[in-house]
Design a protein that fits this description.
460 residues, five-stranded parallel sheet, Arc Repressor Mutant, subunit A, alpha/beta
Length: 460
Amino acid sequence: MKEWMSLEDPLAFKALAHPTRVTILHILTQKQASVNELAHELNMVHAKVHYHVMALLKSELIEQVDSAIKNGIVEKFYRTVAKTFFIGHSIGENTELTNTALSAVENNVLQHRRNELLNMSLLDLAKVIIKDSLFIGKNAKVLIEGNESHQELLKALALECRKTGAEAIMRYITFEQYYNEVQNVDIDILEKEPAFSSMLYKNVDYWITIGTLTGRSLFAQADKHKLNAWKTGMIKAINSSHKGLRSIVIDFPNKQWANELGLNYAQVHDSFWKALNCPLNELNTLGTSLIHTLKAQKKVKLKGANNSFIEFELCNKRAILLNNGQLTSNLKEDFDTNLFLPGGKISFAPIESSINGQVVVAKYLFRGTVITNINITIKDGEITEFKANENVADLINALQQKCGLYAGSISIGFNPNVTGNGYFNSIKPNSVTLGLGCNTYLDGNIKDKIPVFLDIGEMK
Protein backbone atom coordinates (compact mmCIF):
# COMPACT_ATOMS: atom_id res chain seq x y z
CA MET A 1 0.00 0.00 0.00
CA LYS A 2 1.27 3.47 -0.92
CA GLU A 3 1.62 6.11 1.77
CA TRP A 4 -0.52 8.56 -0.23
CA MET A 5 -2.08 9.03 -3.67
CA SER A 6 -3.07 12.12 -5.62
CA LEU A 7 -6.47 11.81 -7.32
CA GLU A 8 -5.93 13.13 -10.86
CA ASP A 9 -7.97 10.76 -13.09
CA PRO A 10 -11.48 12.08 -13.92
CA LEU A 11 -12.71 8.46 -14.11
CA ALA A 12 -12.00 8.08 -10.40
CA PHE A 13 -14.25 11.06 -9.63
CA LYS A 14 -17.33 9.39 -11.08
CA ALA A 15 -16.73 6.41 -8.81
CA LEU A 16 -16.88 8.74 -5.82
CA ALA A 17 -20.19 10.36 -6.68
CA HIS A 18 -22.06 7.99 -4.35
CA PRO A 19 -21.78 8.43 -0.56
CA THR A 20 -21.70 4.66 0.02
CA ARG A 21 -18.47 4.42 -1.96
CA VAL A 22 -16.97 7.19 0.15
CA THR A 23 -17.84 5.17 3.26
CA ILE A 24 -16.42 1.96 1.78
CA LEU A 25 -13.20 3.72 0.85
CA HIS A 26 -12.89 5.10 4.36
CA ILE A 27 -13.34 1.61 5.88
CA LEU A 28 -10.78 0.09 3.51
CA THR A 29 -8.13 2.65 4.46
CA GLN A 30 -8.25 1.18 7.95
CA LYS A 31 -8.47 -2.56 7.24
CA GLN A 32 -8.93 -5.13 4.50
CA ALA A 33 -12.42 -6.53 4.08
CA SER A 34 -14.50 -8.69 1.79
CA VAL A 35 -17.81 -7.73 0.21
CA ASN A 36 -19.60 -9.94 2.77
CA GLU A 37 -17.88 -8.19 5.67
CA LEU A 38 -18.61 -4.75 4.22
CA ALA A 39 -22.26 -5.66 3.67
CA HIS A 40 -22.56 -6.78 7.29
CA GLU A 41 -20.84 -3.63 8.62
CA LEU A 42 -22.95 -1.31 6.45
CA ASN A 43 -26.16 -3.30 6.98
CA MET A 44 -26.72 -3.50 3.21
CA VAL A 45 -27.55 -6.32 0.82
CA HIS A 46 -24.58 -8.12 -0.74
CA ALA A 47 -25.42 -7.21 -4.35
CA LYS A 48 -25.45 -3.45 -3.73
CA VAL A 49 -22.15 -3.50 -1.88
CA HIS A 50 -20.60 -5.70 -4.60
CA TYR A 51 -21.66 -3.15 -7.22
CA HIS A 52 -19.97 -0.26 -5.37
CA VAL A 53 -16.82 -2.28 -4.64
CA MET A 54 -16.46 -3.17 -8.33
CA ALA A 55 -16.77 0.53 -9.25
CA LEU A 56 -13.96 1.41 -6.84
CA LEU A 57 -11.86 -1.51 -8.11
CA LYS A 58 -12.32 -0.43 -11.74
CA SER A 59 -11.22 3.09 -10.83
CA GLU A 60 -8.07 1.65 -9.20
CA LEU A 61 -8.85 3.22 -5.83
CA ILE A 62 -8.87 -0.21 -4.17
CA GLU A 63 -7.17 -3.51 -4.94
CA GLN A 64 -7.58 -7.17 -4.07
CA VAL A 65 -5.06 -8.13 -1.39
CA ASP A 66 -6.13 -11.64 -0.36
CA SER A 67 -8.65 -14.45 -0.89
CA ALA A 68 -10.01 -17.40 1.09
CA ILE A 69 -12.38 -20.28 0.49
CA LYS A 70 -15.42 -20.17 2.75
CA ASN A 71 -18.21 -22.74 2.39
CA GLY A 72 -16.81 -23.70 -1.00
CA ILE A 73 -16.91 -20.13 -2.31
CA VAL A 74 -13.86 -17.95 -2.96
CA GLU A 75 -14.13 -14.78 -0.87
CA LYS A 76 -11.93 -11.88 -2.01
CA PHE A 77 -10.54 -9.22 0.31
CA TYR A 78 -9.89 -5.61 -0.68
CA ARG A 79 -7.99 -2.62 0.63
CA THR A 80 -7.32 0.91 -0.64
CA VAL A 81 -4.22 1.40 -2.79
CA ALA A 82 -3.04 4.19 -0.48
CA LYS A 83 -3.33 5.18 3.18
CA THR A 84 -4.27 8.75 2.27
CA PHE A 85 -5.87 10.39 -0.78
CA PHE A 86 -5.35 14.00 -1.78
CA ILE A 87 -7.31 15.83 -4.45
CA GLY A 88 -5.01 16.49 -7.40
CA HIS A 89 -4.33 19.99 -8.70
CA SER A 90 -4.91 19.21 -12.39
CA ILE A 91 -8.56 18.17 -12.09
CA GLY A 92 -9.98 21.13 -14.02
CA GLU A 93 -13.60 22.20 -13.60
CA ASN A 94 -15.87 19.67 -11.94
CA THR A 95 -19.52 19.48 -11.06
CA GLU A 96 -20.66 20.41 -7.58
CA LEU A 97 -21.48 16.74 -6.97
CA THR A 98 -17.95 15.65 -7.88
CA ASN A 99 -16.33 18.30 -5.70
CA THR A 100 -18.55 17.29 -2.78
CA ALA A 101 -17.56 13.64 -3.19
CA LEU A 102 -13.87 14.50 -3.42
CA SER A 103 -14.01 16.68 -0.32
CA ALA A 104 -15.82 13.95 1.61
CA VAL A 105 -13.18 11.37 0.68
CA GLU A 106 -10.31 13.67 1.56
CA ASN A 107 -11.83 14.71 4.90
CA ASN A 108 -12.50 11.10 5.90
CA VAL A 109 -9.06 9.74 5.09
CA LEU A 110 -7.23 12.75 6.51
CA GLN A 111 -9.13 12.37 9.76
CA HIS A 112 -8.03 8.72 9.88
CA ARG A 113 -4.45 9.75 9.09
CA ARG A 114 -4.38 12.24 11.96
CA ASN A 115 -5.89 9.78 14.42
CA GLU A 116 -3.89 6.70 13.47
CA LEU A 117 -0.66 7.67 11.72
CA LEU A 118 0.01 10.91 13.61
CA ASN A 119 -1.46 9.59 16.88
CA MET A 120 -3.50 12.70 17.57
CA SER A 121 -7.10 13.71 18.15
CA LEU A 122 -8.42 16.98 16.72
CA LEU A 123 -10.58 17.56 19.80
CA ASP A 124 -7.62 17.03 22.13
CA LEU A 125 -5.53 19.42 20.05
CA ALA A 126 -8.29 22.05 20.09
CA LYS A 127 -8.40 21.79 23.89
CA VAL A 128 -4.65 22.46 24.11
CA ILE A 129 -4.90 25.45 21.73
CA ILE A 130 -7.84 27.09 23.51
CA LYS A 131 -6.79 26.46 27.12
CA ASP A 132 -2.99 26.16 27.12
CA SER A 133 -1.90 28.19 24.07
CA LEU A 134 -4.42 31.03 24.14
CA PHE A 135 -5.64 30.91 27.76
CA ILE A 136 -9.24 31.53 26.72
CA GLY A 137 -11.59 31.47 29.70
CA LYS A 138 -15.19 31.90 30.70
CA ASN A 139 -17.23 34.73 29.10
CA ALA A 140 -14.53 35.54 26.52
CA LYS A 141 -15.77 36.45 23.03
CA VAL A 142 -13.90 34.66 20.24
CA LEU A 143 -14.08 35.23 16.46
CA ILE A 144 -12.82 32.21 14.47
CA GLU A 145 -12.31 32.72 10.71
CA GLY A 146 -11.39 30.33 7.92
CA ASN A 147 -12.75 28.75 4.76
CA GLU A 148 -14.65 25.53 4.19
CA SER A 149 -11.49 23.41 3.92
CA HIS A 150 -10.78 24.33 7.55
CA GLN A 151 -14.22 23.46 8.87
CA GLU A 152 -13.09 20.47 10.97
CA LEU A 153 -10.57 22.59 12.86
CA LEU A 154 -12.98 25.55 13.03
CA LYS A 155 -15.70 23.43 14.60
CA ALA A 156 -13.31 21.75 17.05
CA LEU A 157 -12.01 25.14 18.25
CA ALA A 158 -15.54 26.57 18.53
CA LEU A 159 -16.73 23.52 20.51
CA GLU A 160 -13.83 23.81 22.94
CA CYS A 161 -14.54 27.55 23.40
CA ARG A 162 -18.11 26.76 24.36
CA LYS A 163 -16.97 24.03 26.76
CA THR A 164 -14.89 26.62 28.62
CA GLY A 165 -17.84 29.02 28.81
CA ALA A 166 -16.57 31.34 26.07
CA GLU A 167 -18.72 32.62 23.20
CA ALA A 168 -17.46 31.52 19.77
CA ILE A 169 -18.42 33.22 16.50
CA MET A 170 -17.55 31.32 13.30
CA ARG A 171 -17.07 33.20 10.04
CA TYR A 172 -16.31 31.54 6.69
CA ILE A 173 -14.16 33.74 4.46
CA THR A 174 -11.99 33.06 1.38
CA PHE A 175 -9.31 34.98 -0.49
CA GLU A 176 -11.63 35.02 -3.49
CA GLN A 177 -14.11 37.05 -1.42
CA TYR A 178 -11.39 39.49 -0.41
CA TYR A 179 -10.25 39.75 -4.04
CA ASN A 180 -13.78 40.47 -5.27
CA GLU A 181 -14.14 43.18 -2.62
CA VAL A 182 -10.92 44.83 -3.81
CA GLN A 183 -11.95 44.68 -7.45
CA ASN A 184 -15.59 45.73 -7.15
CA VAL A 185 -15.76 48.30 -4.35
CA ASP A 186 -14.89 51.98 -4.84
CA ILE A 187 -11.44 52.93 -3.58
CA ASP A 188 -12.82 55.62 -1.23
CA ILE A 189 -15.01 53.04 0.50
CA LEU A 190 -12.16 50.52 0.73
CA GLU A 191 -9.95 53.04 2.50
CA LYS A 192 -12.52 53.75 5.18
CA GLU A 193 -12.98 51.48 8.15
CA PRO A 194 -15.20 48.55 6.97
CA ALA A 195 -18.38 48.65 9.04
CA PHE A 196 -18.84 44.88 9.36
CA SER A 197 -15.20 44.19 10.23
CA SER A 198 -15.16 47.04 12.73
CA MET A 199 -18.28 45.67 14.40
CA LEU A 200 -16.68 42.24 14.79
CA TYR A 201 -13.30 43.38 16.03
CA LYS A 202 -14.73 45.87 18.53
CA ASN A 203 -16.84 43.17 20.13
CA VAL A 204 -14.42 40.26 20.47
CA ASP A 205 -11.50 39.50 22.77
CA TYR A 206 -9.78 36.96 20.51
CA TRP A 207 -9.52 36.85 16.73
CA ILE A 208 -8.37 33.45 15.45
CA THR A 209 -7.65 33.24 11.72
CA ILE A 210 -7.01 29.89 10.09
CA GLY A 211 -5.12 31.17 7.07
CA THR A 212 -3.64 29.57 3.99
CA LEU A 213 -1.78 30.84 0.96
CA THR A 214 -4.49 29.44 -1.31
CA GLY A 215 -5.73 32.15 -3.60
CA ARG A 216 -3.16 34.77 -2.59
CA SER A 217 -1.77 34.69 -6.13
CA LEU A 218 -5.08 36.31 -7.13
CA PHE A 219 -3.81 39.59 -5.70
CA ALA A 220 -1.03 39.67 -8.30
CA GLN A 221 -3.71 40.76 -10.80
CA ALA A 222 -5.49 43.17 -8.44
CA ASP A 223 -5.38 46.95 -8.83
CA LYS A 224 -2.43 47.95 -6.61
CA HIS A 225 -3.96 51.30 -5.55
CA LYS A 226 -7.22 49.64 -4.54
CA LEU A 227 -5.33 46.82 -2.81
CA ASN A 228 -3.38 49.33 -0.71
CA ALA A 229 -6.62 51.18 0.11
CA TRP A 230 -8.23 47.92 1.21
CA LYS A 231 -5.26 47.11 3.47
CA THR A 232 -5.49 50.61 4.98
CA GLY A 233 -9.19 50.10 5.70
CA MET A 234 -8.58 46.72 7.34
CA ILE A 235 -5.81 48.16 9.52
CA LYS A 236 -8.14 50.98 10.60
CA ALA A 237 -10.77 48.43 11.58
CA ILE A 238 -8.29 46.41 13.62
CA ASN A 239 -6.73 49.46 15.27
CA SER A 240 -10.15 50.79 16.24
CA SER A 241 -10.83 47.65 18.26
CA HIS A 242 -10.46 47.69 22.01
CA LYS A 243 -6.90 47.36 23.29
CA GLY A 244 -7.49 43.88 24.69
CA LEU A 245 -7.90 42.22 21.26
CA ARG A 246 -5.62 39.22 20.78
CA SER A 247 -4.87 38.15 17.21
CA ILE A 248 -3.88 34.56 16.42
CA VAL A 249 -2.99 33.14 12.97
CA ILE A 250 -2.89 29.38 12.38
CA ASP A 251 -0.86 28.75 9.22
CA PHE A 252 -2.83 25.94 7.58
CA PRO A 253 -1.10 24.23 4.59
CA ASN A 254 -2.81 23.90 1.23
CA LYS A 255 -2.27 21.90 -1.94
CA GLN A 256 -2.20 24.86 -4.34
CA TRP A 257 0.73 26.49 -2.60
CA ALA A 258 2.59 23.18 -2.31
CA ASN A 259 2.05 22.44 -6.00
CA GLU A 260 3.28 25.88 -7.08
CA LEU A 261 6.55 25.31 -5.20
CA GLY A 262 6.86 21.65 -6.20
CA LEU A 263 6.45 20.36 -2.64
CA ASN A 264 5.04 16.99 -1.63
CA TYR A 265 1.68 17.90 -0.08
CA ALA A 266 1.48 14.69 1.94
CA GLN A 267 4.71 15.65 3.72
CA VAL A 268 3.55 19.25 4.16
CA HIS A 269 0.24 18.05 5.64
CA ASP A 270 1.95 15.77 8.15
CA SER A 271 4.51 18.41 9.04
CA PHE A 272 1.76 20.91 9.93
CA TRP A 273 -0.13 18.58 12.28
CA LYS A 274 3.03 17.25 13.92
CA ALA A 275 4.34 20.77 14.48
CA LEU A 276 1.01 21.96 15.89
CA ASN A 277 0.89 18.94 18.20
CA CYS A 278 4.36 19.48 19.74
CA PRO A 279 4.19 19.68 23.57
CA LEU A 280 4.25 23.31 24.72
CA ASN A 281 6.61 22.65 27.63
CA GLU A 282 9.14 21.14 25.20
CA LEU A 283 8.91 24.17 22.91
CA ASN A 284 9.40 26.53 25.83
CA THR A 285 12.48 24.65 27.09
CA LEU A 286 14.12 24.51 23.65
CA GLY A 287 13.37 28.16 22.85
CA THR A 288 14.63 29.46 26.20
CA SER A 289 17.84 27.46 25.83
CA LEU A 290 18.42 28.85 22.33
CA ILE A 291 18.00 32.42 23.58
CA HIS A 292 20.53 31.85 26.38
CA THR A 293 23.02 30.41 23.86
CA LEU A 294 22.74 33.45 21.59
CA LYS A 295 23.00 35.98 24.41
CA ALA A 296 26.21 34.35 25.63
CA GLN A 297 27.97 35.30 22.37
CA LYS A 298 29.26 38.78 21.61
CA LYS A 299 29.18 38.13 17.86
CA VAL A 300 27.16 35.35 16.25
CA LYS A 301 28.17 33.67 13.00
CA LEU A 302 25.98 31.02 11.39
CA LYS A 303 27.14 28.83 8.48
CA GLY A 304 25.06 26.91 5.93
CA ALA A 305 25.44 24.93 2.71
CA ASN A 306 27.26 26.26 -0.38
CA ASN A 307 29.56 28.53 1.68
CA SER A 308 26.61 30.63 2.84
CA PHE A 309 26.92 32.49 6.14
CA ILE A 310 25.39 35.30 8.14
CA GLU A 311 26.92 37.16 11.09
CA PHE A 312 25.50 39.76 13.45
CA GLU A 313 25.58 41.28 16.92
CA LEU A 314 22.64 41.32 19.29
CA CYS A 315 21.42 44.58 20.78
CA ASN A 316 20.99 44.25 24.56
CA LYS A 317 18.16 46.78 24.58
CA ARG A 318 16.07 44.82 22.08
CA ALA A 319 13.81 41.92 22.98
CA ILE A 320 14.14 38.43 21.54
CA LEU A 321 10.63 37.29 20.69
CA LEU A 322 9.96 33.68 21.71
CA ASN A 323 7.17 31.85 19.92
CA ASN A 324 6.70 28.78 22.10
CA GLY A 325 3.14 28.22 20.97
CA GLN A 326 1.64 30.29 23.78
CA LEU A 327 0.02 33.72 23.66
CA THR A 328 2.03 36.54 25.20
CA SER A 329 1.71 40.31 25.26
CA ASN A 330 5.29 41.28 24.41
CA LEU A 331 4.59 42.51 20.88
CA LYS A 332 4.26 46.18 20.11
CA GLU A 333 0.83 47.62 19.37
CA ASP A 334 1.74 48.44 15.76
CA PHE A 335 2.21 44.77 14.93
CA ASP A 336 -1.24 43.26 14.48
CA THR A 337 -0.59 39.58 15.29
CA ASN A 338 0.14 38.33 18.79
CA LEU A 339 0.77 34.68 17.89
CA PHE A 340 1.48 32.50 14.87
CA LEU A 341 0.85 28.75 15.12
CA PRO A 342 2.48 26.26 14.87
CA GLY A 343 5.06 27.70 17.25
CA GLY A 344 8.75 26.98 17.47
CA LYS A 345 11.02 29.90 16.60
CA ILE A 346 12.71 32.96 18.03
CA SER A 347 12.84 36.32 16.23
CA PHE A 348 15.02 39.34 16.89
CA ALA A 349 16.41 42.53 15.35
CA PRO A 350 20.23 42.57 15.55
CA ILE A 351 22.18 45.81 15.37
CA GLU A 352 21.41 46.62 11.74
CA SER A 353 24.92 47.75 10.81
CA SER A 354 26.40 44.52 12.22
CA ILE A 355 24.62 42.21 9.77
CA ASN A 356 26.91 40.74 7.08
CA GLY A 357 26.61 37.65 4.99
CA GLN A 358 26.21 35.73 1.79
CA VAL A 359 23.00 33.68 1.63
CA VAL A 360 20.98 31.66 -0.87
CA VAL A 361 17.18 31.31 -0.91
CA ALA A 362 16.05 28.27 -2.92
CA LYS A 363 12.46 29.39 -3.65
CA TYR A 364 10.22 32.31 -2.80
CA LEU A 365 6.61 32.88 -3.88
CA PHE A 366 5.96 36.58 -4.57
CA ARG A 367 2.60 37.80 -5.92
CA GLY A 368 1.85 34.42 -7.48
CA THR A 369 5.28 34.02 -9.11
CA VAL A 370 7.96 31.58 -7.96
CA ILE A 371 11.44 33.12 -7.73
CA THR A 372 14.26 30.56 -7.58
CA ASN A 373 17.92 30.56 -6.53
CA ILE A 374 18.00 34.01 -4.91
CA ASN A 375 21.55 35.08 -4.02
CA ILE A 376 21.95 37.93 -1.52
CA THR A 377 25.07 39.70 -0.30
CA ILE A 378 24.74 41.79 2.88
CA LYS A 379 27.34 44.34 3.98
CA ASP A 380 26.83 46.37 7.16
CA GLY A 381 23.09 45.70 7.03
CA GLU A 382 22.61 46.82 3.43
CA ILE A 383 21.92 44.39 0.60
CA THR A 384 24.63 45.10 -1.95
CA GLU A 385 23.76 42.26 -4.33
CA PHE A 386 20.34 40.76 -5.01
CA LYS A 387 20.04 38.38 -7.94
CA ALA A 388 18.08 35.29 -8.95
CA ASN A 389 17.47 33.00 -11.91
CA GLU A 390 14.45 35.03 -13.03
CA ASN A 391 11.38 37.04 -11.93
CA VAL A 392 13.24 38.96 -9.20
CA ALA A 393 12.78 42.52 -10.54
CA ASP A 394 9.26 42.99 -9.08
CA LEU A 395 10.40 41.89 -5.61
CA ILE A 396 13.39 44.25 -5.66
CA ASN A 397 11.22 47.16 -6.84
CA ALA A 398 8.64 46.49 -4.12
CA LEU A 399 11.31 46.51 -1.42
CA GLN A 400 12.95 49.66 -2.75
CA GLN A 401 9.60 51.48 -2.82
CA LYS A 402 8.77 50.47 0.76
CA CYS A 403 11.98 50.76 2.76
CA GLY A 404 15.05 50.09 0.65
CA LEU A 405 17.17 46.94 0.53
CA TYR A 406 18.06 46.41 4.18
CA ALA A 407 18.32 43.34 6.42
CA GLY A 408 16.15 43.96 9.45
CA SER A 409 15.50 40.79 11.42
CA ILE A 410 16.47 37.15 11.86
CA SER A 411 14.43 34.13 12.98
CA ILE A 412 15.73 30.71 14.04
CA GLY A 413 13.48 27.65 14.24
CA PHE A 414 13.52 24.92 16.90
CA ASN A 415 10.29 22.86 16.60
CA PRO A 416 11.58 19.24 16.88
CA ASN A 417 8.55 17.77 15.13
CA VAL A 418 9.39 19.43 11.79
CA THR A 419 11.68 17.47 9.47
CA GLY A 420 12.47 17.51 5.75
CA ASN A 421 11.78 20.37 3.36
CA GLY A 422 8.40 22.01 3.10
CA TYR A 423 6.01 24.67 4.19
CA PHE A 424 7.26 24.87 7.80
CA ASN A 425 10.96 25.41 7.20
CA SER A 426 10.85 28.59 9.31
CA ILE A 427 10.27 26.57 12.50
CA LYS A 428 12.47 23.58 11.62
CA PRO A 429 15.41 23.17 14.04
CA ASN A 430 18.36 25.43 13.10
CA SER A 431 16.50 26.86 10.10
CA VAL A 432 17.18 30.58 9.59
CA THR A 433 14.80 33.16 8.12
CA LEU A 434 16.03 36.60 7.03
CA GLY A 435 13.60 39.49 7.38
CA LEU A 436 13.96 42.41 4.96
CA GLY A 437 12.39 45.73 5.90
CA CYS A 438 10.27 46.41 8.97
CA ASN A 439 11.69 45.42 12.36
CA THR A 440 10.08 48.00 14.65
CA TYR A 441 7.93 45.29 16.24
CA LEU A 442 11.23 43.87 17.53
CA ASP A 443 12.42 47.31 18.74
CA GLY A 444 14.44 47.83 15.54
CA ASN A 445 14.88 51.04 13.54
CA ILE A 446 13.48 50.11 10.10
CA LYS A 447 9.92 51.37 9.79
CA ASP A 448 7.54 49.83 7.30
CA LYS A 449 4.14 48.11 7.33
CA ILE A 450 4.98 44.64 6.02
CA PRO A 451 8.39 42.90 6.07
CA VAL A 452 9.49 40.24 3.56
CA PHE A 453 10.73 36.98 5.07
CA LEU A 454 13.16 34.78 3.10
CA ASP A 455 13.86 31.18 4.13
CA ILE A 456 17.64 30.70 4.07
CA GLY A 457 17.60 27.10 5.28
CA GLU A 458 19.55 25.22 7.93
CA MET A 459 22.56 26.99 9.45
CA LYS A 460 24.68 26.35 12.52
